[in-house]
Design brief:
single chain; alpha/beta; 2 domains; 6-stranded mixed beta sheet; 13 helices; globular
């Protein structure tokens, strides 16, 4: 394999051209131009092969950092000095999937949302909350979780006439993502992004009394229950007796709405449709600890950074219910 070289003059010219287009063109056209720029200087290939060549990898990573700082200056400013010198692996993996346009475009959306958070909440507070986390991202999955969280906060902050409060602590020292004021109500919001690792056709729908068949995964609803209940203990992230909503973002091979509804209301709920779902004792909402959770929302964030909401659920046993006026405002965020 021949060595990869990057001519400084050519790189500067290409970067200048890309930045001019940043000011003049729409985001989709920009992404195409940047991808062509990166491909022209061999960055994609170098990053994929750079782990085998520390010298090449270091040189390419430095130039990638320069490009990143020019295209996404506010997102770049959240990185600490070490991460700016050596762009974390999660960013490299995020920028260069099989479809580089998608990674670049979504980072452009994230840049817009971070900019809006700086204006609304203040750069110092946003940096205090996110610099440590985002500077240490070692995987695309972890970076996706943080970007999803920041994008959600930017969207729900639109509903608040007062400055949102990032990561408010409760009486036990734990924290959720943000507190906003909606229709005069203090609303606490927590974002959870989950991924379904398994393909369809290899999973049970519900728990069974007998042994699990070989090569058949347990029900996805059990994984969701475990992530929300045992791992995150999401019910303990909110102050006691408050109005709050858990936003769930769940990438799956199959029917996310049914999986989440099954986890919240019980196994029977997988087969139920409509707004009225009966709560049974094997659902998370039936647990005593979960009475501190007012409701849940399942949605996604599209490539343009807009919320797409598929389902909203009240907790029938919540200590404090979500007022209908607040649900109405939440629904208005739907793209």
């Amino acid at each position: 394999m021949s060595p990869i070289t990057i001519d400084d003059d050519k790189l500067k010219a290409l970067l200048k051209q890309a930045l001019v287009e940043l000011l003049q063109e729409e985001n989709e056209l920009l992404c195409d131009a940047i991808c062509e720029t990166i491909e022209d200087v061999g960055l994609i290939h170098a990053i994929k092969e750079g782990s085998a060549s520390p010298v090449v990898g270091k040189r390419v990573n430095g130039r990638l950092g320069t490009l990143f700082s020019l295209l996404y200056p506010n997102l770049w400013s959240l990185l600490n000095a070490k991460a700016q010198r050596d762009l974390p692996g999660g960013f490299r993996e995020f920028i260069f999937p099989d479809d580089a346009v998608t990674g670049l475009s979504f980072l452009g959306v994230a840049e817009e949302k971070v900019t809006s958070l700086f204006k609304r909440i203040g750069k110092r507070r946003v940096s205090d909350c996110y610099t440590r986390d985002i500077s240490g991202v070692d995987s695309k999955k972890r970076l996706s979780e943080l970007l999803c969280e920041m994008l959600l906060i930017a969207e729900v902050s639109k509903l608040s006439p007062v400055k949102p409060q990032l990561r408010p602590k409760n009486e036990n020292g734990r924290e959720c993502d943000v507190k906003v004021k909606v229709c005069g109500v203090d609303l606490y919001v927590e974002c959870k992004r989950l991924e379904d690792p398994g393909p369809p056709g290899c999973r049970s729908i519900a728990k069974s009394g007998g042994p699990k068949p070989a090569k058949v995964a347990r029900p996805r609803s059990m994984d969701i229950r475990s992530k929300l209940d045992h791992d995150a203990r999401v019910y303990g992230q909110f102050p006691h007796g408050t109005v709050n909503i858990v936003f769930l973002f769940h990438r799956s091979w199959a029917e996310s709405v049914r999986y989440i509804r099954q986890a919240l209301f019980g196994d029977h709920a997988f087969f139920e449709d409509g707004d009225e779902v009966q709560l049974r004792n094997d659902g998370l909402f039936a647990a005593k600890e979960w009475t501190n959770v007012s409701g849940c929302v399942y949605g996604t964030i599209d490539i343009h950074g807009k919320l797409v909401l598929y389902a909203l659920w009240d907790n029938p046993r919540a200590m404090i219910a979500v007022p209908e006026s607040v649900w109405t405002k939440i629904k208005q965020l739907n793209a």
